[in-house]
Amino acid sequence: MYKYQRIARAIERNLPHYSHKLPTIRELAAEYGVTKTTITNALKQLEAAHLIYSRQQSGYFLVDQAENPQTTTGLFDFANASPEANHFPYHHFTGCIHQALNTHKDDLFTYGQSQGFPPLIQSASKLLQADQIFARPEHIFITSGAQQALSILCQMPFPNSGDTILIESPTYPLFEQLAELYNLTAIPIKRTKNGINLKAFNHLLNEHNVKFFYTIPRFHNPLGFSNTNAHNQTIADIAATHNTYIIEDDYLADLDTTNTQPLYAGAKTDHVIYLKSFSKVLFPGLRISVAVLPANLASSFHTYKQLTDIDSSLLPQIALQLFVDNGMLSRHLDELRQHYSTKLDLFQSIVADHPIHHDLPYLPPKSLKTHLPLPNHFNLRHLMKTCQEQRILLPDNQLPGALDTAHIPLLLELSTIPLDTLEEATQHLLDIILTYLK
C-alpha cells in the first residue's frame, strides 16, 4: 500500500469530524506529517470514491453537501460558480443526445473535423450574428472549452511578433496561471468600475511589444463590472493603432439584458479574437466554446488545435447543434435571463435597503460574479472565519488589493444560491459584515 493510500484511509476515518469543508492541503499535510503531494493524491482517491468533491479555488468539501448544499439549514453558498442544476432542461438535452446517437452513430466511429462539427459552426454563426458578431464560417472554431482556446492563443505566434501580453488586474485566475505556465511576460493594467485607464493603456502599448490584451469587457471576472460601448470602442481603436490583438472573453454574453455590445462588434479592424462559452448557461461539463479568429490567425490556430486534440468531442457538439436548431437554447436562455435578472435585482435591492449601504461607495455590480466594496481597514480574514462558523461559504480567492486604496472587495458568487434563499442569505451576510464595521 502506498503512503497516499494510507493517508487517504486516515482522512476517511476523520471525515465525520470535519465540517462541510475539509482543511486546506497545507493544513492536512501538517496534521499528518506528509508532503502536500501525498495529501493531494490522497484527496484525489477520496474524490474518486465520491466521498469528497472539489471546488475550483475553494478547496475540498464533504460529498453529502454536493447534492444540494442550499437545502441544508443555514448553509448559504456564495462561493460556488456553477450554474443552478435545477434550471437546466435535462429532459430536452438528453433527447438531443439520444437523437445524436441515432442519427450520427456512424460519425462517432471516425475522427471529426478539428475546426468543429460543420452544422454546429453554422448554428454558432447565427448565434453570433444575433450579438452583432459577423464572421465567415472558416474563421469560427469549436474548442473544448474556452480554456483550450486560451491555451492555444498563448502558445501560437502572432503576426505582430509580440513578446508580451497585457492583462487586466484582477482577471480570470486560471488565465494568470496559464500565462505563468507558458512563461509569458504579463503586464497588468488596473480594471475598475469605469474600465481601464485609456492613457495608461496607450502608454503600455507604446512602451512594450504587446502580442495581445486579454480582457473581459462584460461581467468582469471576478469583480462583475461591464464596460460601456464607447469605452470598448476606444480600447479597440487604440489596440489597432499599435497593431495589438485583443482577446475578448465574453463568458456570460448570453445573460446580458442591457444594450451593451461585445467589443468585437465595434472594432473597425481585424484585431479582435472573440471567445464565447456555454458553461454558465448550460453546464460546465459540456466543454464546448466558440472562438472567432481574425483571418490572419485562423490557419495557425487551426494547426495548433488539430495537433492539440485532433478534434473536440463530437457527441456533445451534435447534441448542442440540435439543441440550438430546435429552438431549445433560445427558450432556455429567455427563462435563464429572467431568472438571473430577478435574482440580481433582488440582491442589489437588499444591499441598498440594508444599513450597510451607507458604508459602500457604490452598490454591487449586477453580475453573477460580483463584490461588495468595503473599507480598506476591513478584516477579511476574520469575516471569512466567522462566516464559515455561521455556515456561509465565501470564495477563498479574495483579492484585497483589487480596488482603489480606500476599499477592498468582498468577492461573491451568486450563480448557485437559490432565489428563494437569497434574501435570507444576503441579510445574514450583511448583518455579520455590519458588526465588523461598527
TrEMBL record:
One of its GO terms (molecular function) is transaminase activity. Keywords: Aminotransferase, DNA-binding, Pyridoxal phosphate, Transcription, Transcription regulation, Transferase. SMART domains: HTH_GNTR. Gene3D superfamilies: Type I PLP-dependent aspartate aminotransferase-like (Major domain), Winged helix-like DNA-binding domain superfamily/Winged helix DNA-binding domain. Pfam families: Aminotran_1_2, GntR. The keyword Transferase applies. Residues 1-65 form the HTH gntR-type domain. In the C-terminal section; belongs to the class-I pyridoxal-phosphate-dependent aminotransferase family. This is PLP-dependent aminotransferase family protein. It comes from Dolosigranulum savutiense.
